[in-house]
Hints:
The chain is mostly beta strands and 191 residues long. Helix content is 0%, strand content 35%.
Amino acid sequence: xxxxxxxxxxxxxxxxxxxxxxxxxxxxxxxxxxxxxxxxxxxxxxxxxxxxxxxxxxxxxxxxxxxxxxxxxxxxxxxxxxxxxxxxxxxxxxxxxxxxxxxxxxxxxxxxxxxxxxxxxxxxxxxxxxxxxxxxxxxxxxxxxxxxxxxxxxxxxxxxxxxxxxxxxxxxxxxxxxxxxxxxxxxxxxx
Length: 191
């Protein structure tokens, strides 16, 4: 059985005018260039938009996702270990408000993108002109948790004396804490 709890306490992210455009095609940014053509550390992406001049075209925290463009390699995230391409389209978040001027906007990224191989590689291909980013409209921020939301694994405590302990549980959140003191015998290997 699936239990769903709806909360009105989750914050609402208000997107800029590009993300809140009524037509989906108006929510798309077309990549013109990046601050690092080698793909080693992309922190800014210059794009064109249908929103010609607007001080609030992109707001800090706005989300966007690279979408499929015919003739271009799809931008996907890579795994942390092994750097294998995943099926997850790369997503970006604006770190600052970005105004559009003359149909151009410079998107400042909260997390740099890196396509060159190495420890910091997080995308499968370099960002090049003609790629598209679909911006996300205003939305409620939240978290989807499957199963038990908080789990903690602890070894079973040994039965020793003295082993005084105390435990306390919060009825509202269900969080409990057990405190103990005394000595837990340990094995010492002496050769």
